[in-house]
Amino acid sequence: MSFDWSKRGADKRIRLFHSIPEEWKLRTYYRRESNVFNIPTECGKLSAEELSITNSTASDLVEKLSRGELKAVDVTVAFCKRTTVAHQLVRCFHEFFPEKAIAQAKELDEYFEIHQKPIGPLHGLPISINDQFRIEGQEASMGRIAWLGKYDTTESTLITLLRKAGAVLYTKTSVCQTLLSGETCNNIIAVTSNPRNNAWSAGGSSGGGRCFDRTPRFSTWGGSVRVPAAFNFLYGIKPSQGRTPHSKMANSVEGQETAHSIIGPIAHTAADLRLFLKAVLSQEPWNYDPKVIPLPWRSSEEDIARSKVAGRLTLGYFYSDGVVNPYPPILRGIDEAVAKLRENGHTLIPWRPYKHAYAQRFVRIMYTADGNTGILNSLKASGELVIPYNKRLLRSTKGHLNANQLGEVQLKQWEYQRKYLERWRRFEEETGTELDAIIAPVAATAAIRHGKFRYYGYSSVISLLDFTSAVAEYDPEVYDGAPVGLQVIGRRLSEERILVIAEEIGRLLGNSQTP
Amino acid sequence: MSFDWSKRGADKRIRLFHSIPEEWKLRTYYRRESNVFNIPTECGKLSAEELSITNSTASDLVEKLSRGELKAVDVTVAFCKRTTVAHQLVRCFHEFFPEKAIAQAKELDEYFEIHQKPIGPLHGLPISINDQFRIEGQEASMGRIAWLGKYDTTESTLITLLRKAGAVLYTKTSVCQTLLSGETCNNIIAVTSNPRNNAWSAGGSSGGGRCFDRTPRFSTWGGSVRVPAAFNFLYGIKPSQGRTPHSKMANSVEGQETAHSIIGPIAHTAADLRLFLKAVLSQEPWNYDPKVIPLPWRSSEEDIARSKVAGRLTLGYFYSDGVVNPYPPILRGIDEAVAKLRENGHTLIPWRPYKHAYAQRFVRIMYTADGNTGILNSLKASGELVIPYNKRLLRSTKGHLNANQLGEVQLKQWEYQRKYLERWRRFEEETGTELDAIIAPVAATAAIRHGKFRYYGYSSVISLLDFTSAVAEYDPEVYDGAPVGLQVIGRRLSEERILVIAEEIGRLLGNSQTP
C-alpha cells in the first residue's frame, strides 16, 4: 500500500505516453544537459508546413484562420504533434487529448464552411492551459496522486469562454505538486525541464505552459506566469485581480480571499498577449464569474500609452529589492533596458522599493494561513512523498490561522498596499509627472538548475500589491543562453497600458520578433 | 466600576449636548409618538434663508456655491443649526464640531474670493458622515463606550477626498452599537428616532445619517444605506465593492474579506447621489485606496440607461424572497411601481428569487466568522450592556472559524454568486433582451417601532451578491405616513445605470421632488 502512490504516478505517466500516437513517438534518447530546443524542427516528425504553422505568432494564425487561409484541423494537428515532441523531451503535459481537439477543430472548419466567417476572435487557435483548469472527461490532478482518476464533469469558466471565442483545447500542461513553487516538479512527470538545457528548470508553478511553439497559454498566481515566461524567453502578463475569470478551477487553497489566484497568459509576443486578453474580455466574463470586474478592453488606455511611448514615458526602475540581490546578468538586463529607454528620450528615475522584506512576511503567512492543511491533506490522501523542493515550504507553516488572525493579516496587507500607492503618488507629486511603470527583475537569477529556485520575492510582492505586471525579455545570450526576464509593473488594472510599454521595451531590446 | 460604562456614556451624551451653542437649544419638550418632522421649520431657530438653504437639494446648493451666489459659511451655519435641532429631537449625532466646520467654510470662501472659482465639485457643501469615519481630533466611538476618549490622529480616505472636493465636514452621525443592525441604538444616545414618529426607528446601522435636510450622507454595508433611506423617504445607493474608498475607517470586524464594508450615500434625490459619486470618483480614489477599482464615472453607461428609459426597459420584479413575506404596504408599493412602469411602455417580468434562505445562512456565518469576538471584546472592554436588540444577534454566533472553514464559506458564496449570475443570463437568453434591473422590497416592513426590526434578508442577500442597489420611494401616506422603500437592483458595478433607473421610478411614483 505504501508504494501504491508511486504505481499510480507511474500508471499516469504511462497513460500519458500512450496518449501519443505511435507515429509521433521519438526514437532517439536525449541526455540531460543537452539543449533540445531545436529537436522539434530537426526530428522529422513535423512537415515544413506544420513547422511554419507552429512557428507563427498566434496573431498571424488567427488572421489566416479567420480568412479561411488555414484550416483549424491542420493547425490543430500541427500543434498536437509539436506538443508531443516537446513532452517527450521535457515532460510538459498532464493531459493530452488530440482526438477531442481534432473533433472540435472539424466543427470549427464546418462552421467556417457554412458561414464563411470565424466563430469568434480565436477561431481555430490551439491554446494550452495548465492542469488547474477543468475540462469535462479529463483529470485535473494538478500533479497530485490522490486526484488522479477523477474525471471532471464540469468545465472551468475560462474554458467555456475560450471555446466560445473559437479556441481549440488539446492539452493541459504540467504544474508543481503544491502550485506554490517557482519550478515544476511532481510525482507523475518528475520535472519539466527547460528546452534550452535539460538540467535547468522551466520555471513554475506552471512550467509546462511554455516552450517550443508560439500559442498563448494560461497560467496562474504569484510568479506562475512571470517566472516561466522569464525562464523561457517569453512574454507573460499577470493581470490584476478581477480582470480574468478563475471560477470553477482546481486550486491549492480553495475559497481563500487572502492571496488571490490570478490567471494570465504567456506568449511569444506582447501582441499575442493582447489578442488573448481582448478575446477573453470580448466574451464578457463578468457575466459568468462574479469576481470579474465589468471592464472591457480599453483602447483609450492603449492610445494614451502609445502616445507616451512615442513621446516620453516616465519610468521607475530598481535593481534589487533590498532583500536578495540579483545575479549580474539580471543587473545587466536592467542596465541595458534603462540605457535603451533613455537613448529613446524617456525619463528613468530610480525607484526605492518599499519594505519588500516586510511584505514577504505576509506572503508567507498568506500562503500558509490554513497551516497547509489543504495541500498536506491532498498529499496524505495518497501517501505520496512531498517532493524535496516543497519540504522547506511546507515546514515553514505557522499553523492554522483563525478568522481574527486572518483579518489582522489582511488588514496589514491593505495598509501595505495603501502605503505603496502613497509612495507612487508622492513620486508623481515630486517629479510632476505620471509614473507610467516600474522596471524590475522577475527573479534574482536567470533560468536555473532543477531544485535551485529559492527566492520568490520579486514576483510575490508585486502579486501582494495586486499590481499589473508584464514580463519582457533581455538577450538570452549573455548568460550561457539562459533567458533573463524583466518585469514591467503598473498600478492595479493597468493591463492595456502595461502591455504597450512592455512591447516597447521588448522592441528596444531587439526581442519583438525573437522565437 | 461596573456602572462606570454608564457614566462614560452619560458623560459623552452631556458633552454632545454642550457642543450645541446655547442660542440653538430648544426649550420645548417633544413627547414620544409625536411627529417632529416640521419642528425645524417651526421652532424659530432658523431664518427664512437658512430654511431655504437647508431645504435645497445638494445639486442646487453646489451650483449656487460654485457661482458665488451663496457663501460656504452661510450654508454651513444653516446646516449646523438644523442638525442641532434634529439632534435635540431624535438624537442623531455622535460628534458635532461647528467651529471646525465654519473655519473650513471660511477658507473655502477665501479661496473663492481669490480664484473666483470653486475648489472642487462639492465646494462649500456640508456633508454628514457616520461615526465610522475618522477625522483628526474627533472620537470615532461607533457607539461603543470603550472607544470613547480616543481622539483620532488620522483621517479616513473618503474624508480626505471629500475635503479635496470642497465638502465641509461638521458632524458624525449615530450608528448602532454593533453596526450589524437595522436600527440605531447604543449606550450613548439610546436610540435615533424617526422624525415622522418618535416611536419609530430611523433605521440602521447608520440611522443618524438621515432626516431633516437635503445634504448627502455616507453610510456603509448591508442594509445600512438602504434601510435608513427606506425608513426616511430618501434615496440611497449601495455601490458594489471597490467603487468607493473605505480605507482608514473604524469597523466592526476589521480586515475581514468575507463580507465587505461598502460606503454609499443617502440623499433626497437621485441627482444628489450622482453628484456625490461623481465628485468622489473625480478625486481618483483608486490612487489612495488600493481596494478601489480605477473606474471613473461612465457617462456612456448613463446614456445607455437614459435611452432605455426613453424607449423600453426590461425589468424583473419580486414581491417576496420566499422567506419572509412583506407587509401589504410594501406589496402595494411594488404593485404601483410595476403598474406605472408598464403604463410607460416598459417590460416587467416576474423574477424568481434564487435560494435567498440559503444565502442568508452565509450572511449569518460571514457576519459572525470571528465568533463576534471583535464586537464582544470591544463591549467587554468597558463592561457595557449589550443592547437588547443585539443580544439575539450575538447569541447566534457559531464560534470562531479557522482559515479552512472560512475558505469553504467563501467558496460557497462565490458559487452562489455565480449561479445567480447564471440565472440572470438565462433570463436574458429566454427573453432575448438585457435585464436592466430587478425591483424588490428593501425590507419586509415600512419604518417600524424601535426594537422591532427583525429581518435583514431583503438587503443582506443583495449585499452578498455584491449587486448595485439603489433605493427609490413609494408614497409614504399609504401606511400611516411611514415611508416605504423599493430597491432597484443591478448587476455588479452598475451604479451609473441603476441611478438612472431609480430616478425614473421615483419620477413615475411622483417622488422626485418630495422633501
SSE arrangement:
Two copies of one chain form a homodimer.
Chain A: H1 4-18, H2 39-42, H3 48-54, H4 58-66, H5 72-90, E1 93-96, H6 98-115, E2 126-130, H7 157-165, E3 168-173, E4 185-186, E5 190-191, E6 193-194, E7 197-201, E8 217-220, H8 226-231, E9 235-238, E10 263-267, H9 270-282, H10 299-310, E11 314-317, H11 328-343, E12 347-350, H12 356-367, H13 373-380, H14 388-395, H15 403-431, E13 437-441, H16 457-464, E14 468-474, E15 484-490, H17 495-508
Parallel strand pairs in A: 2-3, 2-8, 11-12, 11-13
Antiparallel strand pairs in A: 1-3, 4-5, 6-7, 8-10, 9-10, 9-14, 13-15, 14-15
Question: How many whole angstroms does the radius of gyration of chain A measure?
Answer: 22 Å
CATH architecture of chain A, by name, is: Alpha-Beta Complex
Across the major sheet of chain A, the strand order is: 1-3-2-8-10-9-14-15-13-11-12
Measured as a percent range, the helix fraction of chain A is 40-55%
* Sequence stretches where pLDDT stays below 50 over 5 or more residues of chain A: 210-223
Number of domains of chain A: 1
Structural class of chain A: alpha/beta
How far is the N terminus from the C terminus of chain A? Answer: 47 Å
Number of helices of chain A: 17
The CATH topology of chain A comes to Amidase signature (AS) enzymes
Shape, per Cα inertia axes of chain A: globular
**What characterizes the major β-sheet of chain A?**
11 strands, mixed
